[in-house]
């Protein structure tokens, strides 16, 4: 049994802020007050500042002198921009991972099984969680730590959640789509990199 995932304080604060943005607690253009969050969560301002800096690097928020930190006015076009970058990274990852995954897809299969359950239950949160986990394992299978770090830095889970909750870009058959990727690795499909690229691009919101 895998040990439970322990998130750092900064990560917990970041998730709290992201959930607030996604749920509409902080609307586009609205100011996020660092001191208020620190008081609410009973933490110092330092990890709050770190979390906000990370979210600014992901372009979810923006800061300006004398104006503080505000939620960016994100559009479908903003959300769409990340997908070609992600698709390119995952195409490379799939091509590098193909020899290993042709022999053993056990890192991917638990996420597909979980997606079948999530699809049956129409559990949106589980669909996002296991979709992201599937793709993370695919990238990890490439054995390229630079590629994995770059992919992680895109904030895939955050952007996927925003796409689904804000724009309604929901797929009905998450499990079947990901099973098709697993099957391509198993049959040693020489076009698996292109297949993964197309799979990611098909998930992109349309501006």
Structural account:
- With 207 residues, the protein is mainly α.
- The protein has helices at residues 9-23, 34-41, 45-57, 76-103, 109-121, 124-140, 145-152, 156-167, 174-186, 192-202; strands at residues 31-32, 61-64, 68-71.
- A three-stranded antiparallel sheet has the order 1-3-2.
- It starts with 8 loop residues before the first helix and ends in a 5-residue tail after the last helix.
- Mean pLDDT is 87; it is low at 1-6.
Keywords:
mainly alpha; 10 helices; 67% helix; disordered N terminus
Please give the order of strands in the largest beta sheet.
1-3-2
Radius of gyration: 18 Å
SSE succession: HEHHEEHHHHHHH
Sheet with the most strands? 3 strands, antiparallel
Count of individual beta strands: 3
**Proportion of beta-strand residues:** under 5%
SS field, number of helical segments:
10
Gross morphology is elongated
Alpha carbon gap, first and last residue? 43 Å
Average pLDDT works out at: 87
Low-confidence region ranges? 1-6
Helix share bin:
55-70%
Task: Output the structural class.
Answer: mainly alpha
Q: What's the quick description here?
A:
The protein has 207 residues and is mainly alpha-helical. Helices cover 67% and strands 5% of the residues. It has a 3-stranded antiparallel sheet.
Secondary structure layout:
Elements: H1 9-23, E1 31-32, H2 34-41, H3 45-57, E2 61-64, E3 68-71, H4 76-103, H5 109-121, H6 124-140, H7 145-152, H8 156-167, H9 174-186, H10 192-202
Antiparallel strand pairs: 1-3, 2-3
Helix pairs in contact: 1-3, 2-3, 4-6, 4-8, 4-10, 5-6, 5-9, 6-8, 9-10
């Amino acid at each position: 049994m895998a040990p439970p995932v322990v998130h750092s304080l900064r990560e917990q604060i970041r998730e709290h802020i992201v959930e607030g943005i996604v749920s509409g607690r902080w609307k586009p253009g609205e100011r996020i007050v660092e001191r208020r969050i620190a008081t609410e969560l009973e933490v110092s301002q330092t990890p709050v500042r770190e979390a906000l800096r990370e979210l600014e690097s992901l372009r979810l928020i923006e800061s300006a002198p004398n104006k503080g930190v505000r939620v960016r006015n994100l559009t479908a076009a903003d959300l769409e921009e990340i997908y070609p970058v992600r698709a390119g990274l995952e195409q490379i990852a799939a091509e590098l991972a193909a020899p290993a995954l042709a022999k053993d897809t056990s890192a991917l299969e638990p996420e597909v099984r979980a997606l079948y359950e999530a699809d049956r239950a129409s559990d949106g949160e589980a669909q996002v969680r296991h979709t992201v986990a599937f793709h993370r394992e695919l990238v990890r299978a490439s054995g390229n730590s630079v590629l994995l770090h770059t992919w992680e830095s895109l904030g895939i889970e955050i952007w996927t959640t925003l796409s689904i909750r804000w724009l309604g870009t929901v797929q009905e058959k998450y499990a079947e789509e990901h099973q098709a990727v697993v099957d391509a690795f198993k049959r040693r499909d020489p076009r698996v990199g292109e297949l993964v690229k197309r799979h990611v691009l098909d998930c992109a919101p349309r501006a």
